[in-house]
Write a structure and sequence with these properties.
There is one protein chain. The chain is of the alpha/beta class. The protein has 2 domains: 191 residues, Rossmann fold; 54 residues. The protein is 47% helix and 12% strand. Strands 2-1-4-5-6-3-7 form a 7-stranded mixed sheet. Strand 4, helix 4 and strand 5 form a beta-alpha-beta unit. It is elongated and about 95 Å long. The protein starts with a helix and ends in a 5-residue tail after the last helix.
């Protein structure tokens, strides 16, 4: 009788243990960062997805942002060499090459790397996954390679408190940012938050200066600020002509400028993005692939 009772208890304990095993998360595997030079962070599975070929514009095709290009390239080169460098915030006009510059600089720095082990890893984290940033940094900390962490179109709206966790991770946390990780972000906003969000804090706080400081201090965590502004017509034409020369598009120069001017008027702006959209339209009409 006692033996049957013990066997019943043992069976129940076995079922409970099996159930707990099923509920427990699977042990995370250390990602193999030798698979590629670029990855996308998947927060839901706490994994890094390799990107075999990055969608980027060639470094030599960037026009109208020469100063920003040289500053960011030098900062990234210093970081890749294992020396202290700054987090960077690229802010300003839409379509003026902020994210294109980050990806192009990453490629250029890797071209200069002496060995494959010295190549920098580009890891993109989406804006909505910022709260999982500590988990990502824990993975990258011991990966053995320099990592450029990139967030495109970073901004925060009302009722969004995740910026506080980003502040702590960048500089203020106990562990701080790993020495092999640098953080680059692009944004249309210099302080990463809409003006009405900052003004709301100013109007409702007892100490208005302290409230505003809380909101704008996130951008202070970036030691490097690079501003991007709409380009003039000559720079816009230089972008167009650079693409035409690179892809071998045969078109009369006067017609090219007239068509490019009309294209920018219909879009209501001149920018690198508008120039690239025109080139895609032009190549399609000429029956030429862009490769």
């Amino acid at each position: 009788m006692e033996q049957r009772v013990n066997q019943g208890i043992l069976a129940q304990l076995t079922r409970i243990a099996d159930a707990l095993d099923r509920l427990a998360p699977a042990a995370s595997r250390k990602p193999d960062l030798s698979l590629a030079d670029a990855f996308i962070w998947k927060a839901e599975s706490a994994s890094l997805e390799p990107v075999p070929e990055v969608n980027r514009i060639d470094f030599d095709l960037l026009r109208g942002i020469e100063r920003q290009t040289q500053i960011l390239l030098e900062n990234t080169r210093i970081f890749a060499a294992g020396l202290p460098a700054n987090n960077a915030l690229l802010w300003g006009a839409r379509g003026m090459g902020k994210s294109s510059l980050v990806k192009a600089v990453h490629a250029r720095v890797n071209e200069l790397a002496p060995t494959a082990k010295d190549r920098t890893v580009l890891v993109e984290i989406h804006r909505e996954d910022i709260p999982s940033l500590p988990d990502l940094l824990a993975i990258l900390r011991d990966c053995g390679r320099p990592c450029l962490l990139f967030c495109d179109d970073l901004s925060f709206d009302n009722e969004d408190a995740s910026y506080k966790s980003l502040k702590a991770v960048l500089e203020g946390g106990i562990e701080g940012r790993p020495s092999n990780v640098i953080f680059y972000a692009t944004s249309n906003r210099r302080h990463l938050m809409p003006r009405d969000m900052i003004e709301n804090e100013r109007s409702t706080a007892i100490h208005t200066s302290e409230a505003v400081e809380e909101k704008v201090s996130l951008s202070d965590r970036f030691g490097l600020w690079l501003g991007f502004h709409h380009c003039d017509q000559d720079t816009y034409f230089a972008m167009i002509e650079g693409y035409v020369g690179r892809y071998g598009l045969e078109v009369d120069p006067e017609q090219l400028r007239a068509q490019a001017r009309e294209w920018s008027v219909t879009r209501g702006s001149r920018s690198g993005r508008v120039a690239w959209q025109f080139i895609q339209d032009l190549a399609g009409r000429l029956g030429k692939p862009l490769s």
